[in-house]
Amino acid sequence: MHDDDSRDGTHDDAGKRELARLETLADWLDTRFRIPGTTIRFGLDGLIGLVPGLGDLAMLAPAFYLIVRAASLGAPLHVLARMLVNTSLDLVIGAIPVVGDIFDVAFKANRRNTALLARFLERQAAKRIR
Asked: How far from 63 is each of 35, 40, 50, 58, 127, CA to CA, in Å?
């Protein structure tokens, strides 16, 4: 084994495993369930967000966990900032009764954030290959 894990792919494998775990979390938060007879998907964020005031605040914990994990995987400041904007929009607009609930189902901030992280990790892997 090399001292530099990036040479033997260990770093890439660990990042892929962590991304898969975060994508599973985002699935539960944003797209786990489907309204029968439609293509509309929603998750725990949309369900718990129905609780006035507290629901959207409660969903900040897993959303921030995704951002913290992205930071630990080396995501740069501009990616983390975009993730924070997505999460902030989800919180602020999601807090508006009815409109916010529809927004939560449509916007899927956690899915957007894991997609940002996936793009970053793919670019990092491509740079190491060169």
From this structure: 23, 21, 17, 10, 28
- Nearest-angstrom CA–CA distance, 57 and 68: 17
Give SS3 for 12. helix
What's the mean per-residue pLDDT of the chain?
91
Q: Tokens 């927004």 belong to which residue? A: 103
Nearby residues of 82 by Cβ (< 8 Å), 6 or more positions away: 116
53-79 pLDDT tens trace: 789 999 999 999 999 999 999 999 999
pLDDT in tens, 78-129: 999 999 999 999 999 999 999 999 999 999 999 999 999 999 999 998 888 7
Which region holds residue 9: left if phi is over 0, alpha if psi is between -120 and 50, else beta?
left
Query: Is the CB of residue 99 less than 8 Å from the CB of residue 56?
Result: no
